[in-house]
Amino acid sequence: MLSKIYSFYYDGFKSMTVGKKLWGIIFIKLFIMFAVLKMFFFPNYLNTTFNTDTEKADHVMNQLLRPVQKDGQ
Q1: Could you tell me the pTM of the whole model?
Q2: For residue 52, is it within any domain?
């Protein structure tokens, strides 16, 4: 069963022409989204704000355990 699935996808990807270029574009876009944009738009807040691991853990615990504030209350 697994060998049939493997051979199905292997043969499909082997005979692709345009699909290889599309997969290349997809991987380039994923790299840009996760590597490049993360550096500029998602800085490491904990490392820039807190010095010790204990301070970081306390902050995360407080954020997870604080009660949710509903709108209008």
Answers
A1: 0.46
A2: yes
- Is there a contact between 19 and 25 (Cβ–Cβ < 8 Å)? no
* Residue position matching structure tokens 């604080």: 66
With vertex at residue 23, the alpha carbon angle to CA 43 and CA 3, rounded to the nearest 5 degrees, is 115
Q: Which residues of 27-61 are buried (b: 16+ CB within 10 A; e: fewer)?
A: eeeeeeeeeeeeeeeeeeeeeeeeeeeeeeeeeee
Residue 72 lies in a domain: no
Residue-wise pLDDT tens digits, 24-47: 899 999 998 888 888 788 778 888
Number of structural domains (the chain) is 1
Residue 46 lies in a domain: yes
**Structural domain includes residue 61:** yes
